């Protein structure tokens, strides 16, 4: 049972990373279908979001590591990368889905 769960988890992780990498490849090689004004920001943050996601998944850390003893500046330095990476993740996938829809139709 444990081996089956582990194999499914590895398979899902491979599917996730391949789709995210193809979505990033689409971001760099093709036109942007969604938010054309933010293309340079997305292209800048996309590689950082890859590293951020990989670190969070490998270390099994909290996605937003916040505790009550942090100062305001510490909170901002923890929250800004999270917000930017989630924003990039969503926009890159929306762009990828729109590209696939355009390619199919």
Structural class: mainly alpha
Q: Please give the radius of gyration in angstroms.
A: 16 Å
Element order: H for helix, E for strand: HHH
Number of strands: 0
Spans where pLDDT lies below 50 across 5 or more residues:
none
List the domain count as a whole number. Answer: 1
Q: Helical element count?
A: 3
Strand content range: under 5%
Mean pLDDT: 78
Q: Which sheet architecture does the biggest sheet show?
A: none
Shape: flat
Classify the helix fraction into a percent range.
over 70%
Q: What is the CA–CA distance across the termini?
A: 42 Å
Descriptive account of the structure:
- Helix content is about 80%, strand content about 0%.
- The longest helix is centred in the last third of the chain and has 33 residues, at about 70-105.
- The chain has helices spanning about 1-30, 40-60, 70-105.
- The chain has one domain (about 1-105).
- Helix 1 crosses helix 3 and helix 2 crosses helix 3.
- The protein is an all-alpha fold and about 100 residues long.
- The N and C termini lie far apart (about 40 Å).
Spell out the blueprint of helices and strands:
Elements (H helix, E strand, L loop, with lengths): L1 H28 L9 H21 L12 H33 L1
């Amino acid at each position: 049972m444990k081996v089956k769960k582990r194999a499914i988890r590895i398979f899902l992780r491979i599917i996730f990373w391949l789709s995210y990498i193809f979505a990033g490849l689409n971001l760099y090689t093709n036109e942007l279908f969604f938010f054309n004004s933010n293309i340079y920001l997305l292209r800048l943050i996309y590689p950082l979001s890859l590293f951020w996601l990989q670190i969070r998944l490998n270390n099994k850390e909290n996605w937003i590591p916040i505790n009550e003893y942090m100062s305001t500046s510490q909170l901002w330095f923890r929250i800004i990368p999270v917000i930017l990476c989630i924003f990039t993740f969503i926009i890159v996938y929306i762009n990828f889905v729109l590209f696939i829809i355009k390619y199919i139709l």
